[in-house]
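Homework help thread (please don't just give me the answer)

Our assignment gives two proteins as sequence + structure token strings and asks us to describe the second one. The first is just a warm-up. Here they are:
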Amino acid sequence: MSLLQVCKLTARAQTLRAAAVQSRGVATGASKAPVVPAQKVASSDITPAPQPPRDVMVADVISGAPAELRHRSVRIYQPTRSTMQSGGAKSERWRIDFDILPFGGRWENPLIGYASSADYMQGTKMSFRTKEDAIHFAEKQGWDYYVQTPPKVRIPPKNYSENFLYRPGKLRIVRTK
């Protein structure tokens, strides 16, 4: 891509940013509108304002990232909780992981036996608050992505009395000592 094309893209980004600032109501020297007191409205009458569609401008050209990073495949998922914890901490966040390249220069280290790779992005993980933020970031970077749906959380019912419940045909634990 030539320098002229990059300059045109940055100029376009600046005009889009200026238009976004004006649309948010930030005045550039204009006088403020008079403040009108709010009226009491029933909670059933409130409807959320429609969100404008996000204008996605691919940032991979301007970012300076290497060409082999463009159009990488990433996985967007919600990680499961660790087996060492009983709470759901850090399980509400969404994560982006890079997929392994098919010919990513993988080899086995002969001294220790660990698997090594020439792919410098395989260990990169990014965390986001929502799935939409992660998708927007992947689209903005020009990455191909797929969203892995989170598994259903099923907590089995536990009852101590179930250990001593009589069920015909089931072998019971009999302690002899």
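The one we have to describe:
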Amino acid sequence: MTIYLCVPDFEGILCGIYDAWMSRKGHDNVRLELKGTYHELELFSEYVEPESTHEKAHKVIKSVCSKLSQEVYKKIYVASLSQDTERADKIYRFLVQAFGIGPGILDQLQIPENCDIFELCRNVYNENHLLVEFLRFSQAAGGVLVSRIGPKNDVMTLLAPHFADRLPEENWIIYDVNREKAAVHPKGKPWILVNHPLEQPDGDNIWQLCLEQETDEREYEDLWISFFHTIAIKERTNPICQRNHLPLRYRAYMTEFQRER
């Protein structure tokens, strides 16, 4: 067995798929794993680290789009954003089946490899949908809108376009605290993705400085708490139902729950 240790991003996974496919060792004799995740080492297995290059990733993308469909390409991209540590191998197995069956594979959920991709995408889309509702902006100095999120899946590239469309004339930042990256939207311009912390010459983290600036959160905390107490019916309080509609993990980043936390 040859195990390819991929960089855990979309391009890295595509490069792992390219090397595994072009090795001609047989699909049953190769497996993809994500570099940096815990896996027990297997005896008599060869571990290979594919080199990540734009050329290899582009060849995979071109083959998927021309021989399958744009929808299949979209599916594997969204699946690559999942938190699942086995997503690289699941995408590889799916493509093996897809190139044999054709683009119609997306309609055949009885195929296990397609079902796996469907589950990955559904999990990503569900979290993105919830964040569209639960994300909160606070206004910092200079009128910049700042928000923190801590998603399990890497949904930033799905989430940012929504707010770029809804808030085109605002300066805003959405910061993913788990991955230390941010979507930055200058007023009237396209948003950009910053994949690493930006540091000032003295070593201070510019995101941390921005996120620690005084905001209008306290004012909105008071408004939300007053709203909850006004509409709440004590006899009908149902914490379990509340948690089903608003999981606890989202509350740490929501303005109205800051004081409670």
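TA reply:
I won't write it for you, but here's a hint about the kind of observation we're looking for: The chain has a mean pLDDT of 86.
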